[in-house]
Amino acid sequence: MFDPFVCNGLLMAHVKAVKDLVSTRQVFDEMPHRNLVCCWTSLISGYARLGLAEKALKLFMVMLKENLQPESDTMVTAEDMEAYRMKRWKHTG
């Protein structure tokens, strides 16, 4: 039986404790139903925490294309990543 909340717990554990985004993404990709925004937020946050702003923003955009409504936590992560991206753009341009 599939429990999306258990999968989200696995995502959070991989991101916070193990810091293994390859395994985290594999768990996410293998979830049969990815309609819980908290699961998307966990993965986006993982990319953000490990300095992978571009991947975080791309995944956020995919989430929006999937017609999922971001939560406040998701929005904070996305806003932080956009600010990071803009700061990098200013320093390279």
UniProtKB/TrEMBL annotation:
Organism: Sesamum indicum (Oriental sesame)
A molecular-function term among this protein's GO annotations: RNA binding
Lineage: Eukaryota, Viridiplantae, Streptophyta, Embryophyta, Tracheophyta
GO biological process: RNA modification
InterPro entries in the record: PPR_At4g14850-like_plant, PPR_rpt, TPR-like_helical_dom_sf
Keywords assigned: Repeat
Presence of keyword Repeat: yes
PROSITE patterns recorded: PPR (PS51375)
Identification of the protein by name: Pentatricopeptide repeat-containing protein At5g61800-like isoform X1
Pfam families: PPR
Keyword GTP-binding found: no
PPR repeats: 36-70
Gene this protein is translated from: LOC105176521
